[in-house]
Every structure is written in structure tokens, then in C-alpha cells.
Amino acid sequence: MTAAALVRFLGPGFAVTLVESAEIGTVGVGEATIPQIRLFNAGLGIDENQFIAVTQATFKLAIEFVGWTRGGRYMHAFGEVGRDNGGVAFQHSWLRGLAEGVAQPLAAYALNNAAALANRMQRGPARTAQILPEMPYAFHFDAGLYARFLRDYAEARGVTRHEGKIVEVRRDAETGDVSALHLDGERAIPGDLFIDCTGFRGLLIAEALGAGFEDWSHWLPCDRAMAVPSERAADFTPYTRATAHPAGWQWRIPLQHRTGNGIVYASDALSDDEAAAQLLANLDGAPLGDPRPLRFTAGKRSAFWQANVIAIGLSSGFLEPLESTSIHLIQSAIERVLKLLPGRRISAAQRAEYNRQTNLEVDRIRDFLILHYWANDRDEPFWRARREMPLPDGLAHKIELWRASGQIVREEADLFSEVAWLQVLAGQGIAAESHHPLADQPPAAQIAEYLDLLAKLTAREVAQMPDHAAFIRQHCAAREEIAA
Ligand SMILES: Cc1cc2nc3c(=O)[nH]c(=O)nc-3n(C[C@H](O)[C@H](O)[C@H](O)COP(=O)(O)OP(=O)(O)OC[C@H]3O[C@@H](n4cnc5c(N)ncnc54)[C@H](O)[C@@H]3O)c2cc1C
């Protein structure tokens, strides 16, 4: 992604070199995205239907959370929920409606949620476009195929690619900057700015430059995963599923040619054998191999940009894939690199600004993930401990504000909108005790009618949408060839 975007947006005055090692390989997971990925692809001029076809992708409208509370299941759907009423945010009318017994669950007022539940998909404006929004969507895709596609794209536009292992990172004795990468076979690659995309080990940022790691396992204690593909599902649900289990959760990501599955767990609460058994017992098709183990620690680098090295991807830190945010963090890091691109001299202020913005972004995502764990009402020791953990201050305040007043405030750099927080706060069963007084002004019958109308329009819109699998067959069925 980084090489493709740099060659696309930097002019002819820049030379971009990519080093990859087939022997080391990639982490090989990461299949669910959020809608911003469409901006990235569009920025690169990639045709959406071609992208879907070559990456075996399906559409994603939402994430379904199952078993996180005793209440069962809810969705965090992309896009709007309801409609503001005379300047008052929708959740206040909804909260009043709940208190008066005339409101349905949030799902009834969210087009993405209702379409996802019905396995439907459409692109473009809603039929009732004056009232209902267009559905934002993301993709589930085969990350390996996407990387191949982007590699071809990058090479076709002038990126020089070296296949080989970096065996030494050379540094300038005076400045401490990285001066060159030495590959096996005596090759040396000099450079002015180095982007470290070497995965968890952070070969440049951590091993060469010694950037530290802020460990967040006291909030997000899952430290292992096992991934296994299974036979393709008959119908591709247009949503990711995240199902809680006794010591973590399991993902299900439907692609055109297979379903991606994985279990995320805390190694001090579940053994690897138990995790593998739990994963295999909860597939909805035959497994296509053995579960593949992965280890990680939740947290972030103490600096994302240090000297002349910027860490992007897993080398910059790790947040578990509960809200499919890692590929997005790569995308937004690339955007930030382009905005703050240094000339031959890098200033400390540029680095500090890059690190400031990145810290804000990852800290907000971290809080959103912690909310899912903290607000559970499951019985197992792992989950009881999550309920008792002290929260980051910003998150504690957000929950308190919601409880007291039904208000949600989107903070600076928060990737997730007010309605994203609303769906998870409400979905995880945190009740708001009050709502905005202006929502009490309309007569009761008017609020009931308003909520009823929104739900009916949403259901009617969904009813005329095509089936998700049929939509893919018609517009973007998988193809074998990889064309740049
Ligand atoms: C369990 C799990 C599930 C995930 N699910 C999602 C998801 O659903 N959605 C999402 O957005 N993200 C997800 N992610 C994150 C996502 O997989 C990564 O962000 C993404 O794959 C990018 O990885 P990367 O390129 O940083 O690292 P890697 O894939 O590890 O790539 C590292 C690269 O560096 C090269 N390299 C390393 N060392 C050397 C060396 N010495 N010499 C030469 N080359 C070297 C390797 O060859 C490789 O090309 C998930 C991650 C995990 C662990």
C-alpha cells in the first residue's frame, strides 16, 4: 500500500524502492476493512469492480457482535442511524421513544444494519434519497491478493523492487540516521527516508533505532490468534461477525472463494489446544488447512517517526482486529506521510507533529476497542476481570456522559463517529439515564409517528435491494488474472 501510494502521489523527483522477502513472508491475515479503503483505492485510480474481482472480495456493511452480552447480538453498522430531528441528535428521540415504549432497537433505523441482516446490497443513492442516506460500505478481501495487485501496480509505475533479506541496517555515525539497508548477496540500498513496513519486529524502528513499545495488555490482554480458512459459504453475508468466547472472540469473514476465520484469545486464560478446538468447532464450513498461530502484544511504539525512519503497519504497533482498523491505520499513516513529507532535511517539528497526530488516532481506537471488552456481562473469569479493569480517563468520561445525558461527543482525531459509539454503547447494554430536553418538546404521538416512519422507510428500501451474492455475481464476480 505504501509503495503504491508513494509512487502514485510523489512526482518524478522521487525514487521509491521496495524491499520484500518471500522467505520471511507476510503475516498473512487482515481481510476486513472499513469504508475509507474506498478512498484509498479511488486515489490510486483503481476500478472498484476490478479490485473486487481480483481480490475475491465481498461487500461489508457492518460488524455483528455475538455473545458479548447476555442480550445476545447487535451490529455496529457503517453509516447513519436514524435522522436528527430539528437539530437534536437522533439518539435523543430514540431514547425518549424507548422510555415511552414506542421505539424499536437501533437496527430498525440504520439502513446498513437492516440491509446486512437481510443479506442485501446496493450502491448509490437510496430510492428515498431525501430521507435515507446512501449506504457506506467496505470490503472483505484476500489480503495476499490485494498486496500482489498493489505490487504490480507499484512496479508498473516505477517502483524498484528488491527481493531479498535485509541483513544489516547501516546508520550514519554522525547523525544516527539510517543510511542504507544491506541485503543478503552484497546489495546495499541507500536512501533519504525509510518507511519501516517489516511487521511486528520493527526491524528499523525498534531493532536498529531502539524505539520503545507502550504495552496495553492491561486493557487488551488477548495476545494470540489462530487463523484458518474454511469452505466458502453458500451466501456471502455482507458483514463481519465477531463472536465472543470464554477468553476472547472469533472472527468470520466471508470472501467469494472461502471464509476467513480466526480466534483471538488471552494465552493465560486459554491454551493453544483449547483455542484450536474452539475455533474448529465453530466454523460453518469444512476447514481448508490447519489453524495457523500468531502472537502479538497490544500497544504502540513510543515513536512512530524517529530519525529518518517512519513505522507503518504492524511495525508501528498492534490493535486487535475487532473493528478492522489496522489496514485503515496504514492508509491514514500514508496520508500523513504525504502531508508532512520532508525534503532532504527532516525537522524535529515535523516528526513531533506526525507522532502527535498518530498518537491521537491510535489512542481513540484503543478506547473504542476497550469499551467492547469492559461493557460485557459474561460470567467467565476472563470477562469478569475485563469489567473490573480501570479505564483510560477519556473513555471513562465518554461512558459517564452517555449514561448521564445520552450525549456522545466525537473527540479530535476520533476515527469513529458519534453513531459508531452509539451503536456499541447501546449494543453492549449501557443504558442512558436521560436525554436532551429538546427531544421532549414534540407531543408523544409525533415522536412515535416519526420513529415509525423512519423504520418503515428503512425496511421498504431494504426490501427492493438485490441479494448480496447475486449483486456480486452481476457486477464483480471473481476473476483469476491479476491486472495492474
Ligand atoms: C490475527 C490478526 C488479524 C488481523 N485482521 C485484520 C483485519 O481483519 N483487518 C485489518 O485491517 N487488519 C487486520 N490485521 C492487521 C493486518 O494483517 C496488517 O496490518 C497488515 O497485514 C499489514 O501487515 P504489515 O505489512 O505491517 O506486516 P507483514 O505482513 O508482517 O509484512 C512485513 C513485510 O516485511 C518484510 N520483511 C520483514 N523482515 C524483513 C527483512 N529482514 N528483510 C526483507 N524484508 C523483510 C516481509 O517480507 C513482509 O513483506 C490483523 C492482524 C492480525 C495479527
Automatic annotation (TrEMBL):
The active site is at 60. The lineage of its organism: Bacteria, Pseudomonadati, Pseudomonadota, Alphaproteobacteria, Sphingomonadales. Coiled coil: none annotated. L-tryptophan binds at residue 323. GO terms for molecular function: monooxygenase activity; nucleotide binding. FAD binds at residues 314, 327. Transmembrane segments: none annotated. 7-chloro-L-tryptophan binds at residue 60. Keywords: FAD, Flavoprotein, Nucleotide-binding. Pfam families: Trp_halogenase. InterPro entries: FAD/NAD-bd_sf (IPR036188), Flavin-dep_Halogenase_NPB (IPR050816), Flavin_halogenase (IPR006905), Trp_halogen (IPR033856). The keyword Nucleotide-binding applies. This is Tryptophan 7-halogenase. It comes from Sphingomonas naasensis.
